[in-house]
């Protein structure tokens, strides 16, 4: 699932080298944090959050196939 989010994010942004994906949690629940450069935040979130919600939907489907639940958080770059 982490690889899926990383692939999608790198495909969307102008600075793919600054994409960071962290996976935490264990068992049936997984939390994924996505961080991109400040310039690319708008591309990942999208107008009204549509892009981020679409990524969350894809993540949910991928997690369901593995019998897990996953959430995606887009975090501010460090």
Describe this structure in words.
The protein is an alpha+beta fold. It has one domain (2-75): K homology (KH) domain (GMP Synthetase, Chain A, domain 3). It has three helices and three strands, in the order H-E-E-H-H-E.
Q: Any low-confidence stretches, pLDDT <50, length ≥5? A: none
Amino- and carboxy-terminal Cα gap:
23 Å
Instruction: Give average pLDDT, whole number.
Output: 93
Question: Which percent band covers the strand fraction?
Answer: 15-25%
**How many strands, which pairing sense, and closed or not: the largest β-sheet?**
3 strands, mixed
Helix content: 40-55%
Order of helices and strands: HEEHHE
| CATH C-level category | Alpha Beta
Q: Which architecture would the CATH scheme give at its second level?
A: 2-Layer Sandwich
Q: Count of DSSP helices?
A: 3
Backbone structural class: alpha+beta
Count of discrete structural domains: 1
What is the CATH superfamily classification?
Answer: K homology (KH) domain
Using the CA coordinates, give the radius of gyration: 12 Å
Number of strands: 3
Shape: globular
Strand arrangement, largest sheet? 1-2-3
Provide the CATH topology. Answer: GMP Synthetase, Chain A, domain 3
Which descriptors apply to this entry?
about 80 residues, alpha+beta, GMP Synthetase, Chain A, domain 3, three-stranded mixed sheet, 3 strands
What's the layout of helices and strands?
Elements lengths: L1 H11 L7 E5 L4 E7 L5 H5 L4 H16 L3 E7 L3
Parallel strand pairs: 2-3
Antiparallel strand pairs: 1-2
